[in-house]
TrEMBL record:
Residues 21-382 form the ABC-2 type transporter transmembrane domain. It is a multi-pass membrane protein. This is ABC transporter permease. The chain crosses the membrane at residues 21-43, 178-203, 243-267, 274-296, 308-326, 363-382. It comes from Caldilineaceae bacterium SB0675_bin_29. GO terms for molecular function: ABC-type transporter activity. InterPro entries: ABC-2_transporter_component, ABC2_TM. It comes from the Bacteria. Keywords: Cell membrane, Membrane, Transmembrane, Transmembrane helix. GO terms for cellular component: plasma membrane. Coiled coil: none annotated. Its main location: membrane. The keyword Transmembrane applies. The keyword Cell membrane applies.
Length: 383
């Protein structure tokens, strides 16, 4: 174990001081700082332009009522709606900027329900249909004397959804359910990014030592298993360092720590989901790190090994491509098969856990499979 730790420490310190690593790691924080400076200088001007584009400063609607259904206008709408007896006069007021829109209600409205909305400006300004709907509904139910019934017709129900089952109740409602899915989903993305970043260091290190025949000298002092394990731990830690620097810089520049705290609080009610997602992330990274390091021993050059690595990175992303299927039916046969395949099990299980009560033998089986896969791949790679 001492030799493994020594190799890991050596690989980490040699590579962490490389100029290319320092430059690449600093790239995200530097881009974030540049974006922050640009937003400080130009954000206010851009925001003002957008406000001017979408907000004309008034919201008065002229109603040309030929049906008689909306005369007189109810008192609560008098500030935003005015009667015009003549459509041409209303259009003239619209063109002069006195109105936001003109609504023409024909005498066939009760039978056909069609109205004409005349507005000036771009399509983005819209026709204010949400406000019009409230205006029309309130006037149509005014004939009903019962105010309680009027309120129910305007707003038929306020649903309080009750979920059956421990999984849904523990999630803290719809918001908690969404958040409890987002975090494992982000773990899946983080796993794919970590694999992509770390794979380059692992493959390059093994391929360079193999091509320069340095590896033959090293193997005279340590076993192949110790060498491979040390490289995986050291260069894996290097990749994780890079990812953590990026996450910390992004969170610090965007105020993301507050957002992260808001996401984590609902998850405290479902510690098992977060905990298992972390377990699958660590095991998944271990499997791919060992596998990619072993691939470095197969290729005759760094470029050849990197091409082979791309295939396994694609396999790791397959569950992310099937997110729609997993969300719709997390216990489907194809999803369960992916949960039992070592290369897709980590991401698949991270996506399944917050969506359903995953059978315990699926969880235990996937973890056991990953634990067995790591030493097997180390042994095969050492050969």
């Amino acid at each position: 174990m001492t030799k493994v730790f020594t190799i890991a420490l050596h690989e980490y310190w040699i590579n962490v001081r490389r100029p290319d690593f320092i430059i690449f790691t600093s790239l995200v924080p530097l881009l974030g700082i540049v974006a922050l400076i640009v937003s400080l200088f130009f954000g206010r001007q851009a925001g003002g332009a957008i406000v001017r584009m979408f907000d004309s400063g008034l919201d008065v609607t002229a109603v040309v009522d030929r049906s008689g259904e909306f005369t007189p206008i109810l008192p609560r709408f008098e500030e935003e709606y005015v009667h015009y007896g003549d459509e041409a006069e209303a259009r003239t007021a619209l063109e002069s900027g006195e109105l936001q829109r003109v609504v023409v209600v024909p005498d066939t409205y009760r039978q056909e329900g069609e109205v004409t909305v005349v507005t000036e400006g771009s399509r983005f300004s819209g026709s204010g249909t949400s406000g019009l709907r409230a205006f029309f509904t309130a006037h149509l139910v005014e004939e009903i004397g019962d105010e309680t019934l009027q309120a129910r017709l305007i707003d038929p129900y306020d649903a309080q959804v009750e979920y059956i089952g421990e999984q849904a109740q523990a999630s803290g409602g719809v918001a908690g359910e969404i958040l409890s899915f987002i975090v494992p989903f982000l773990f899946g993305i983080l796993l794919a990014v970590t694999i992509f970043v770390s794979s380059g260091y692992l493959v390059r290190s093994v391929a360079e030592e193999k091509s320069s025949r340095v590896i033959e000298i090293v193997l005279s002092s340590v076993t192949p298993q110790q060498l491979l394990a040390g490289k995986v731990i050291g260069l894996g830690a290097l990749g994780l360092t890079q990812i953590l620097v990026w996450i910390a810089s992004a969170a610090g520049l965007s105020g993301g720590l507050v957002v992260l705290a808001g996401i984590m609080l609902p998850l405290l009610m479902r510690v098992e989901v977060f905990g298992l997602a972390l377990v699958f992330y660590i095991l998944g990274f271990g499997v791919y790190a060992v596998l990619i390091a072993a691939i470095g021993t197969l290729g005759s050059s760094f470029q050849e090994s990197q091409q082979i690595t791309g295939i396994f990175i694609f396999i790791a992303a397959i569950p992310m491509m099937l997110t729609g299927v997993i969300m719709t039916n997390p216990d489907a046969m194809v999803v369960r098969v992916l949960s039992w395949f070592p290369l897709t099990a980590p991401t698949t299980m991270m996506l399944r856990l917050p969506l359903a009560d995953v059978p315990w033998f699926d969880v235990a089986g996937s973890i056991l499979l990953l634990l067995v896969t790591i030493p097997v791949v180390v042994w095969l790679g050492a050969k």
